[in-house]
TrEMBL record:
GO MF annotation terms: acyltransferase activity
Keyword Zinc listed: no
Pfam families to which the protein is assigned, alphabetical: Acetyltransf_10
Protein name: GNAT family N-acetyltransferase
Domain N-acetyltransferase: residue ranges: 3-163
Lineage: Bacteria, Pseudomonadati, Pseudomonadota, Gammaproteobacteria, Lysobacterales
Top-level lineage group: Bacteria
UniProt-listed Enzyme Commission number(s): 2.3.1.-
Enzyme class: transferase
Keywords recorded for this protein, A-Z: Acyltransferase, Transferase
PROSITE patterns in UniProt: GNAT
InterPro entries from the UniProt entry: Acyl_CoA_acyltransferase, GNAT_dom, UCP028520
Amino acid sequence: MSIVVRDVREHELDSVLALNNAAGPAILPLDAAKLRSFFDSAEYFRVAERDGTIAGFLVGFGSDAAHDSDNFAWFRGRSASFFYIDRIVVASRRRGGGVGRALYADVQSYAELRFPQLACEVLLEEGTDHALLFHGSFGFREVGQNVMHNGHRASMLMKDLCSYAWVRDTYGDALPTASWMPMPRPQSRAVPHRPTGTCA
């Protein structure tokens, strides 16, 4: 069956919370209040659906967001403009089936129209090598490490989005409307971004 990536719906938050908290050492646990704050403020909060059930989700924020994450603050102290992936979670029974790649393809399609870089982190814990390998195979490279306030160490990863410069130079802040183009969620406070960005 095909994978459908779409915006999360409010009545699905309990299912998303359970999926997050069953994900293992690569993902920090959430409570319902924090997940609700993501629903209310995240620029990007989408789920991957397969066979009629949620198989994964991804939450992301633009670099101007009021987001209270240690790792987001680390990136903001080092880069003028980026799109930050706070978390991606794939159900254990769906891993290796393309769900993670579908979510990353979708978030990249969103981000490359608006930001020069995509940023995320992987916790450096036992059992997270698969997450580092996945991100490396998708073009992310380590730009540093951060020790979070809870003592966890994270590998800080970034990926240049080479389409951004052309989109910015061609369309500026007035992107055309297209049915295939992911748009910011209505409740997010997304703002236009116009810094320079280059790809080697």
